Amino acid sequence: MRALAVFAKGTNILEMSGFEESTPFADSSHMLEWECMKQSIALVLALCVIATSASANIGANSERIEDAYGTIVQRRLRDDGSVSVVYAKDRYLYMVTFANSRSILESYSRADGKDLSEKEIAKFLKANSRAQWVASTTGKERHFRTSDGAAEATYGILNGRPALTVRDVRR
């Protein structure tokens, strides 16, 4: 109880008995290093939480997809029982096919109908798999497959606009 009262008064706890000069926190430079380390750890953890909550991809549930991809533009029930939803956010259109409330196919295109840049294609591929994407080209379409064989992608014309379509092949 005495320690709590001393701490509440704003007394430096390092001055309390039991701490010697050899304690790593005995001088202010070590205290400063410790504070910087704690802040760095907190920042890294916060960035990890933001990164995982902001991304959505193949296999994600419908709530996570809706949070990440923005406004619903169109929703359609397909003959096989799956649901196709088109979202619009920033300068992109996202078409996602859900089966059992999980994303099984996603297409990404620019709202203005222009081609996706190499950087945009790489960003969407990376968001859908941590595995290495291997590219191959046949005719006008570009094909990609993950090194683990879990997903494949095609860049070509979809509904009259250039789009990258990624699908889960494990299904």
How would you describe this protein?
By secondary structure, this protein is an alpha+beta fold. Helix content is 31%, strand content 35%. It contains 4 helices and 8 strands. The protein has helices spanning 2-8, 28-54, 62-69, 118-128; strands spanning 71-77, 83-89, 92-99, 102-110, 133-138, 141-146, 151-158, 161-168. An 8-stranded antiparallel β-sheet has the order 1-2-3-4-8-7-6-5, covered by helices on one side.
Topology:
Blueprint: H1 2-8, H2 28-54, H3 62-69, E1 71-77, E2 83-89, E3 92-99, E4 102-110, H4 118-128, E5 133-138, E6 141-146, E7 151-158, E8 161-168
Category from helices, strands and their pairing? alpha+beta
Number of H- or I-type helical stretches: 4
Shape: extended
Order of helices and strands: HHHEEEEHEEEE
Gyration radius, to the nearest Å? Answer: 25 Å
Distance between the termini: 61 Å
Brief digest:
The protein is α+β, with helices and mostly antiparallel strands. It is built from four helices and eight strands.
Protein traits:
171 residues; extended; 35% strand; disordered N terminus; alpha+beta; 4 helices; 31% helix; 8-stranded antiparallel β-sheet
